Amino acid sequence: MTHPITTYLNQIRSSLATGAATEHTHRPALADLVEALGEDVTAVNEPTRIECGAPDLAILRSGFMVSHIESKDVGTPLEAAESSEQLKRYRLALDNLILTDYLNFRWYVKGDLRRSVRLARCDANDVLQIESDGREDLQNLLEDFL
Predict the structure, then answer these.
(1) 72: helix, strand or coil
(2) Is the distance from CB of 90 to CB of 84 less than 8 angstroms?
């Protein structure tokens, strides 16, 4: 059986190869990855709006809301997204949050950056270059996040 992170990377590669992928294209792959790495986890894409806004994924464990994920398109500088009004609101309101461009992941706990992981980077030809410890680091981050 293929490891969930390998499956995820293959889905991202395939989507990028079309040349027509957007931020929304990759969300099902991310939802599948999160669900595969956690026991009794459900990732809800485009969940009901909450007071601080509408994070892209709501993560439930055993039916209880445990976290949220906000995604940006592949290659979006997370530093800029992190300083946006949207992320400022989310970081104040959400105790357990990930900001990602699908290749880079920033995990915030109670508004503070807890850990950052780079799974891969896109080269000039939009070919994914996997970081040497990226898979293991991402798995550890997501397991701790969940």
Answers:
(1) coil
(2) no
Kindly report the number of other CB atoms within 10 A of residue 101's CB atom: 20
CB 4 within 8 A of CB 36: yes
For 93, list phi and psi in degrees, rounded to 5: -95, -25
- How many C-beta atoms surround the C-beta of residue 43 within 10 A? 22
CA dist., res. 142 & res. 12, Å (int)? 17
In Å, how far are 36, 45, 85 from 31, measured between CA atoms?
Answer: 9, 7, 25
Q: Tell me: the pLDDT tens digits for 19-33?
A: 899 889 999 999 999
User: Who has greater pLDDT, 93 or 127?
Assistant: 93
CA dihedral angle for residue 78, residue 38, residue 2, residue 24, rounded to 10 degrees = -40
The CA-atom distances, in angstroms, between 43 and each of 73, 134, 142 are 19, 22, 13
Q: What is the pLDDT of residues 32-75, one digit of tens each?
A: 999 999 999 999 999 999 999 999 999 999 999 999 999 999 98
